[in-house]
């Protein structure tokens, strides 16, 4: 995205606060005009003294007016600051809302291909950096521009000749600032990218702290962090050093402007073209005229950083969302008829995975899917849930192509328990009723009893109202898994997907949960992914997958009698 496009996007976001923008502009203009009227008062006072001598009463009158103007200007600037904060807050809130909504609508393949930490960095750190730059832009850049043009106007009114000198030398300051800013853009872009990489590493380390400690990865983790941190430090130093050159160079140019105004102004006074009071006022305006250039150059680094951060945010917001369901209809009543016809799928074109996959499942049938790691078991589940779309072929539920029906109606038909648990911040009850928000207390307790979660929940300090932190907090892996199973038990969908659903539960509890699953799966189409083959011996049909294809199919007894790949897998687990 080009810089011009970024400014258009920022303008579009700010356009929603049009009334506040107009108010900020009026306040800025009013405060600048009032502050610039003070030099005229002092110039008139000097001319009065030069012509009539010292009159304390007249001087006090001028000072009184200047004091009132200063007080009103301060009040206007305070109100303008509050308005600018409101504009910035609204812009940041809207951008974060857009970014979060986009993350929820992004296809799973995008989430899988990008580090979570980088996404967090864009939505949190980059938006904060953008807000800082935006606030500085309003508080200094906008007011500075108004000041430049207004002071130039006042100088033209007093002495066009002197104003012309200031205006002719001004492009030097603008050229210097633009030249340096142009060279810092790439550095701030690199800085933002490295910061995202650093956030991703921190997220991985904190999220996997137990694994880090268990495998003694601390030293290597610190080494990776130090490397990224050094890169960030080096890039930041370069960016700040180069951008900081703007201020001293513009100050030097502004000093030249002031000296030239002094010289030409003094000669004009000697020639009778301007009064001493006029010279005093125009020198004050020359200082005021130069001040915004120094302020703008002082925030140039923040502005450059804000533009880069805005670019990263808008790149996320502009990502292609998951294709819309459009005018697709909901699935009819789901009984459990599922079919896969010549399905082909791969995550990358150069690495084929599932090829010409065919399967037909009848209502109430229990389908177990087994095979070595990487054979496509979880990929098949992703296709059934339409987290990914097939490359060719089709998947149907109740005879309807799932790519032609709404995703929400398809996914409502499945209950899913994964090997990796997911709990949100809230209470135990909040996590159980996620799939059925209107469930009664009796239904919740019945589901928890069925999965044998009720006993440990009642031992918690506040029972079902016990708050849990991110990803379950202090709950054990088995307890978190039981809550996920209870969630599905409560919603009672017509089809089930169990992907290593009992992998984190002890053997005794697993037997109880298996009995609960027996009740839950009765009359429901079920897909069971398992590595422990003892858990799927009662399945109606077992699909044995290898390299994305079904190599064997049948009941446990039939496959064992056949003595093929399944028998080899089974015997490897139970040989002794």
What is the top-level CATH class of the largest domain? Answer: Mainly Alpha
Name the beta content range: 5-15%
> How helical, in percent, are the residues?
55-70%
Cα-atom Rg, whole angstroms?
A: 35 Å
Q: Give the termini separation.
A: 63 Å
Average predicted confidence as pLDDT: 79
Q: Which strand order do you get reading across the main beta sheet?
A: 6-9-10-3-11-12
Q: How many structural domains are formed by the residues?
A: 2
Describe it for me?
By secondary structure, the protein is of the alpha/beta class. The chain folds into two domains: 3-317, ABC transporter type 1, transmembrane domain (ABC transporter transmembrane region fold); 338-574, 3-Layer(aba) Sandwich (Rossmann fold), CATH 3.40.50.300. The chain is built from 20 helices and twelve strands. The protein has helices spanning 3-14, 18-52, 56-105, 108-113, 116-158, 160-207, 209-214, 218-244, 246-270, 276-298, 300-317, 377-384, 407-412, 428-432, 441-450, 454-458, 477-491, 507-521, 556-562, 565-574; strands at 338-345, 354-361, 366-370, 392-397, 400-401, 414-417, 426-427, 467-468, 495-499, 525-529, 541-546, 549-554. The strands form three sheets. The chain has a six-stranded mixed β-sheet, sandwiched between helices. A four-stranded antiparallel β-sheet has the order 2-1-4-5, with helices on one face. Strands 7-8 form a two-stranded antiparallel sheet. Strand 4 (392-397) and strand 5 form a beta hairpin. The longest helix is centred in the N-terminal third of the chain and has 50 residues, at 56-105.
């Amino acid at each position: 995205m080009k810089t011009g496009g970024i400014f258009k996007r920022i303008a579009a976001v700010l356009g929603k606060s049009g009334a506040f923008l107009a108010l900020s502009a009026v306040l800025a203009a009013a405060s600048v005009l009032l502050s610039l009227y003070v030099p005229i008062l002092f110039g008139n006072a000097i001319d009065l003294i030069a012509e009539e001598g010292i009159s304390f009463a007249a001087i006090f009158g001028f000072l009184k007016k200047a004091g009132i103007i200063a007080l009103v200007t301060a009040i206007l600037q305070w109100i303008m600051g509050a308005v600018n904060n409101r504009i910035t807050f609204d812009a940041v809130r809207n951008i974060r809302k857009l970014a979060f909504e986009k993350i929820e609508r992004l296809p799973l393949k995008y989430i899988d291909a990008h580090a979570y930490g980088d996404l967090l960095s864009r939505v949190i750190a980059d938006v904060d950096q953008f807000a800082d730059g935006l606030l500085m832009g309003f508080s200094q850049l906008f007011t500075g521009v108004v000041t430049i043009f207004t002071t130039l106007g006042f100088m033209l009114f007093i002495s066009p000749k002197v104003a012309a000198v200031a205006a002719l030398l001004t492009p030097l300051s603008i050229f210097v600032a633009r030249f340096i800013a142009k060279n810092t853009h790439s550095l701030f872009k690199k800085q933002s990218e490295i910061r995202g990489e650093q956030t991703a590493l921190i997220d991985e380390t904190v999220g996997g702290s137990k694994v880090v400690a268990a495998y003694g990865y601390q030293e290597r983790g610190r080494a990776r962090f130090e490397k990224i941190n050094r890169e960030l430090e080096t890039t930041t130093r370069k960016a700040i050093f180069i951008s900081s050159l703007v201020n001293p160079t513009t100050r030097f140019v502004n000093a030249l402007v002031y000296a030239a105004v002094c010289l030409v102004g003094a000669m004009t006074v000697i020639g009778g073209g301007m009064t001493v009071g006029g010279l005093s006022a125009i020198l004050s305006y020359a200082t005021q005229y130069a001040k915004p250039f120094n302020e703008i150059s002082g925030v140039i680094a923040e502005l450059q950083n804000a533009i880069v951060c805005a670019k990263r945010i808008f790149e996320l917001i502009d990502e292609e969302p998951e294709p819309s369901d459009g005018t697709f209809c909901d699935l009819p009543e789901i009984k459990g008829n599922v079919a896969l016809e010549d399905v082909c799928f791969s995550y990358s074109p150069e690495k084929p995975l599932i090829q010409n996959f065919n399967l037909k499942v009848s209502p109430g049938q229990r389908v177990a899917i087994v095979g070595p790691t990487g054979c496509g078991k979880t990929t098949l589940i992703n296709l059934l849930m339409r987290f990914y779309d097939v490359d060719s072929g089709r998947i149907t539920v109740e005879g309807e192509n799932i790519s032609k029906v709404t995703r929400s109606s398809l996914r409502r038909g499945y209950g899913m328990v994964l090997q990796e648990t997911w709990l949100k911040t809230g209470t135990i009850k909040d996590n159980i009723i996620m799939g059925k928000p209107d469930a009664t207390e009796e239904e919740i307790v019945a589901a928890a009893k069925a999965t044998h979660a009720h006993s440990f929940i009642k031992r918690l300090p506040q029972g079902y109202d016990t708050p849990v932190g991110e990803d379950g907090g202090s709950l054990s892996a088995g307890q978190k898994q039981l809550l996920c199973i209870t969630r599905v038990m409560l919603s009672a969908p017509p089809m089930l997907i169990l992907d290593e659903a009992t992998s984190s539960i002890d053997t005794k509890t697993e037997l109880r949960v298996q009995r609960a699953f027996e009740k839950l799966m009765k009359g429901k189409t079920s897909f069971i992914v398992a590595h422990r083959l003892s858990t799927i011996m009662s399945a109606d049909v077992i699909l044995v997958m290898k390299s994305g294809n079904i190599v064997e199919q049948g009941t446990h007894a039939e496959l064992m009698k056949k003595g093929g790949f399944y028998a080899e897998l089974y015997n490897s687990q139970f040989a002794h």
